[in-house]
Amino acid sequence: MAAVLGIFEQAVLLALLRPETELGKQAYGRAILKEVELRIGHEVAAGAIYSTLDRLEAKGFVSSRLEQGSATRGGRRRRRYEVEASGIQALNQSNAAVERIWSGIRWPLKATN
């Protein structure tokens, strides 16, 4: 069994997969950052997104490519990320693990004291 992804890794991968966003299956770092912040409900350091993307790419869960710079970006190049099949598999395994962990527990939890 593969290692279960951490919550932040899941948030980053899922940001790339959300059909209702403009991200689609490919996105650049800043768009991913905004989507993750929206979903987790607080600000995130850009470095946390980029280091997570680097880690996910090293694991083979995402791939990236550098695009040519545009005039609107002053010629600066942009790196686009895409989820690989292994990333989808890791998300499925992580979700299944969470469902097993929560199995039989009524939600929301209530304090007993």
Strand neighbour order, sheet with most strands: 1-3-2
The major pleated sheet works out as:
3 strands, antiparallel
Uncertain segments are: none
Structural class based on helices, strands and sheet pairing: alpha+beta
CATH architecture descriptor? Orthogonal Bundle
Shape: elongated
Pattern of helices and strands:
HEHHEEH
Radius of gyration: 16 Å
Compact description:
48% of the residues lie in helices and 13% in strands. The protein contains 4 helices and 3 strands; from the N terminus they run αβααββα.
Question: What secondary-structure arrangement, pairings included, does this model have?
Answer:
Blueprint (H helix, E strand, L loop, with lengths): L6 H11 L8 E3 H12 L5 H13 L3 E6 L10 E6 L1 H18 L11
Antiparallel strand pairs: 1-3, 2-3
Helix pairs in contact: 1-2, 2-3
What does this structure look like?
The protein is α+β, with helices and mostly antiparallel strands and 113 residues long. It has one domain: Arc Repressor Mutant, subunit A. The chain is 48% helix and 13% strand. The protein is built from four helices and three strands; from the N terminus they run αβααββα. The chain has helices at 7-17, 29-40, 46-58, 85-102, and strands at 26-28, 62-67, 78-83. A three-stranded antiparallel β-sheet has the order 1-3-2. The longest helix is centred in the last third of the chain and has 18 residues, at 85-102. The protein is elongated.
